[in-house]
Amino acid sequence: MPIDPKRSRSTFQKLGRELTKLVKKPAPESVHKFRTNSRRVEALLSEVVVESHRNDEKLLRLLARLRKKAGRVRDLDVQIAALRNLKIPGGNGHKVQFIEALVEERAQREKKLARAFDRKTADEIRRRLKRAATHMAIPADTEPLTLTLAKLAQLGRDYVPLTEKTLHQYRIIGKRARYIAELSDNEPEARRVVERLKHMQDVIGDWHDWLKLTQKAEKLLGEVRDSVLLVMLRNVTQAKFRQSLDAVAEIRKELAGRILRPATPQIRKPSRDEAPRTAAVA
Fold this sequence. Notes:
Helices cover 75% and strands 0% of the residues.
């Protein structure tokens, strides 16, 4: 089923609304929604639109830069919440020390984010979003599910050993594929693909958050050999890693069994400058 025009236009509108909220106050929910909706805009302009414009390229570079800053704040929000919910038997004070360090870092990152999202920058993004929405060229017969399955074929063709690096690549490609599939007009198969990809994305993302939290703890408490906190963080991270492997194995099995059938990709005209698009995948 072809792309729903309303869904494609709403992609730009949603990002504009979240941008307004973020300028007022970089609250955790606003930071998260800005990052998610900016990736949806990126997927639409990079994977679906058949001919890019200079405005699109500048918009993607700007969004990538701001998303990186927003990502640092979002990561700290997730890490602080996870650490507060972690029950440590007979704690040795390291948890309190670690939380205080993360809260302090979060305050510093929030100040930098607020400076980056000034009104001048926000106004420029809104203008470029409006231009991109007005001038985007999507052929009437474009099938989001066809594009999605072609993207997923990149996951199923290489049965390389799964490592931390390859898991992260699965997450990136899975996100792009999911956001393209979401452009379908409530097609049942597209909804099923979105659900499967979201599950994989959430599981791998959860592991990645705990991995980063553990690495930060090791940096802070590296000289402490008997830290109960470090032991627990490493155990949780390892368990999350195994869950991620299972989630990817399920996707691989579906691709191999043609439950998610790889399709012939549609031809997309390259932009004048593809380098900024590649760099924008953060």
